[in-house]
Amino acid sequence: MAGSADHLVMGVDIGTTAVKVLVLDPKTGQYVQARSREHQLYSERPGWAEESPEDWIAGMVEAVAELKDQVDLARVRAIGVSGMVPALLLLDQEHRVLRRSIQQSDGRTGEEVAEIGQRFSPSAIFDQTGSWPNQQHILPRLLWLRRHEPAIWDRISQVVGSYDYIRGWMTGQFGVEENWAIESGLFAWKSGQWMNDLLCEFEIPKAWFSAPIAPVTLAGTLQSEPAALLGVPAGIAVVGGSADHVASALAVGIDRPGDLLIKFGGAGDILYCTDRPEFHQKLYFDRHDLADLFLLNGCMAASGSLVRWLLDRIGAKESDLGELDRQAATVAPGSDGIVVLPYFLGEKTPLFDPGARGVVFGLMLHHQNAHLFRAVLESVIYGFAHHIEVLEEAGHSIGRILATNGGARSQIWRQIAADVLGRPVQAFPDHPGSALGVAMVAGMGAGLLSPEQAIELGAAGMVTHVPDPAAHAVYREGYRLYRELYERTKPLLELSHHMSEKGGAAR
After folding, report:
1. First to last CA, the chain
2. What are the angstrom distances between the C-alpha of 168 and each of 220, 235, 278, 457, 496?
3. Distance of CA 98 to the CA centre of its chain
4. From first to last of its 507 residues, what are the pLDDT tens digits of the chain?
């Protein structure tokens, strides 16, 4: 169904490092304008990753305000919100936020993950949810909260995710979207029920979890107070929304079994499209925003956030990235012997190791910032290569490789991806990513855009990078070193993890 020429839809993405707001014209298939506002990721103790929901709302309001002079916001007819999964927000009985969110990349719950494995069959959890107990799951974070923040625990009335909270703030109706539920580790997706036996074992109230909402489902209407803050009409449709990585897959036209998307975001996401539901012990599982498609996916805890960390350490700013790219291009593939393990927040897939730590290996006095910068970029792509290896070992054929999100603006990072992976990479350097995808979800939910039209929108602005055979040969050696470095240092990394925990306790 084609959209009315008078109607617009809005997509809001609650990203790891910024809120992005985008307005899409479903009739022409063009996004009209997009704005973003950065927010802080709090990592005040080793492995911690938290954010402030107040920052998300403030950033969204500021980004929309910038659009008012460019777009007639009175034409907006539907809004969708995407975000990281599964971020954890705790609400009291009045739907007030009890503390900062605990992000999906948080790595504080190693003891709780081990406890779950001792008290409940990990294979039973995998069989029902599609993933083994790990630091990303909601249950270990809840157990940590009960142990360390009992005053907060006693006030919990509902558990939601990042984009779920923003949707609830808009509509007054609080719940969770279905991929948040699937990735929570508490939802048996085949039966469509929360795992009551698991909740009972750990004395977690089932009442905290609402029935999941499908992405294109009408979740409510925009209430007058948030409408006034945003400057859009009250009463317009607000849809269920989307996990950010799933929205990204829709936004670039991922709709064929074998399609693979690599996302250069604050975290590093890898999504593989299938036409049948499959579980893998080293990966996550999601439903596509399109019916009858599924996604095997991985998530590296630190990607773009690792680049930001390095910028802070060398005294550089976001505006210096272009110059750093140019300097890194003068460094040969392999970064003159430096190999980085990017596990600066522990690691999720495919290692599921909250005790993993970042390593910079091979440093010498002659190395410069450019060597370090390039080595960090290479480390993220080595992580993507690890995921592709896991997929191929499971018998999955890799078709198209597409790349998106903020890091895909970097020409050298895109070329490194092609060279490391040894395959052409079709990248979208100016693609708005998840915000566009969830705007499409809003358009479909409001009946202004068909699924076929949504897929057609995804191919604009694509550039292709072809691997250089000589560089790929260097990176084959670099990748072997990358994998071996983790295995050989893992016992020492575990000691480092315990030492940092003891040091924190001593403070």
Report:
1. 61
2. 9, 14, 31, 28, 41
3. 23
4. 444 568 999 999 998 789 999 999 998 877 778 899 999 999 888 889 999 999 999 999 999 999 998 899 999 999 999 998 999 999 999 999 999 999 988 889 989 999 999 999 999 999 999 988 988 899 999 999 999 999 999 999 999 999 999 999 999 999 999 999 999 999 998 899 999 999 999 999 999 999 999 999 999 999 999 999 999 999 999 999 999 999 989 999 999 999 999 998 878 999 999 999 989 999 999 999 999 999 999 989 889 989 999 999 999 999 999 999 999 999 999 999 999 999 998 898 999 887 889 999 999 999 999 999 999 999 999 999 999 999 999 999 999 999 998 889 999 999 999 999 999 999 999 888 889 999 999 999 999 999 988 888 766 678 999 999 999 999 999 999 999 999 999 988 777 766 766 665 565
Quick one: three-class SS letters along 423-487?
A: CCEEECCCCCCHHHHHHHHHHHHCCCCCHHHHHHHHHCCCEEECCCHHHHHHHHHHHHHHHHHHH
Q: How many helices (H) and strands (E) does the chain have?
A: 17, 22
**Local structure of residue 353 (DSSP, 8 states):** B
- Helix, strand and coil content of the chain, in percent to the nearest 5, comes to 40, 20, 35
Give the C-alpha separation, 256 to 274, whole Å. 7
**Dihedral pair phi/psi, residue 204, rounded to 5°:** -105, 125
- Which residues are bridge partners to 287 per DSSP? 294
Q: Residues 232, 73: contact at Cβ < 8 Å? A: yes
Residue 344 is given by DSSP the state B
- Output the six-digit token pair for 101: 């969110």
pTM score of the predicted model: 0.87
